[in-house]
Specification:
Elements lengths: L15 H10 L3 E7 L5 E8 L2 E10 L2 E9 L5 E5 L4 E4 L26 H42 L1 H9 L11 E4 L2 E4 L6 H39 L25 H8 E5 L5 E5 L2 H11 L5 E5 L7 E4 L8 H15 L5 E8 L3 E3 L7 E3 L3 E6 L4 H6 L6
Helix pairs in contact: 2-4, 3-4
Length: 392
Amino acid sequence: MIDDQAPKAQYRIKDTFLEFLRANLKGGMMDRIECDPKDRSIFIHFHLKKEAKKLGFFWGGRKLYFCFLSKNKRGELKLFKSWTNQYESQDILEFDVFDEVGRGSFEHFTDKKLTENRVLNYFQLLDKQLSHNKDAKKKLKKIKTKIERIKKDYKRACLAFEIEKYMQNIEVEELDKEIFIYKDFKIKLPHHLNFYQKRDLIFLKSKRLKKASILLEQRLKQAVNEMKSTEDSSPLSLSIENLKVISPVWEKGKVIQNSKQKNEDSFWELKTSSGMSVACGKNSKGNDHIRSQWANKSDYWFHLDGMPSSHLILKLASNQSLDFDLFSALGSALRDQGGHDILEIPLIYTQVKNLKGVKGTPGKVIFKKEKHIVVSYIEHWKEYLSSYCYKG
């Protein structure tokens, strides 16, 4: 708030850092601010629902870095670093966390703060500049439209030179028409005129076009100069998107948050001594993960046919191929994973390269070149897969 008034809408920019703070600290109470005695870094201590949280900032090399210490849903303390865009396990947060991004040791440093008057003057200057900028943009738009029209007319007028050359070898039959057409040039030919009179009429028109081309060329130069003058005298580069905003250094990409533990909870994996591996999703995220991250294009994807089920991926060793007993074990795994009480299990399968995820719907895929099979339930499918040895 500036002078009890919020900044105008045109001066506001979507701030991902502010969204991060709202998501993690909304409703929290600030306890205290801790200053680093060695460098330009601080910690802000918060409490939210009886849980302590810690937000740290470091200003170095004209860049702002931040970190955030809080508990995840499992009650584990995790530290988020903006410069790595990752969460990692951390019990204690000290100022030395910023050492990896250039924190040093200074005995004295000062920082001048802007006064409220200077901030108000800043917004008044923006009002003046952006208002002028808006008018200049309208004027520029009109000039650009004018230039485009002149260019179009000039291009047509320049056809006069081509027409005169073309008319030198024209045949009588070509002028035995009501309208003479040459590219964008058209002229009506009265039927009572003979060939030479029609040719003279076209020459006369082309001479007028020559004169027009000279005038249009002058008008085009004037319009271009007018546009350049308008651009030079107006702050056209000034817009709220182009204003420099100090934002924290934030590594690009998706936030990596306990990815290993998170993925392990969303699917199970089984490896055999023969080199075969099986993975089965426990939920939609797990289904997506084993398909897009765990599997190769040549691996096989399985699903219960016409029934809701998890996705299962099979990796075969180089000397292995599918067999009926293996189908039964995989179908039994999907049957138990989904809690279905059936003895005859309908299966559908295809290679992973024939799958395509559906955007906006986790766990859903579109498949092609699929095959259908019905197998019998094997109660001890897990032991069978664990001890599987290809008999080929």
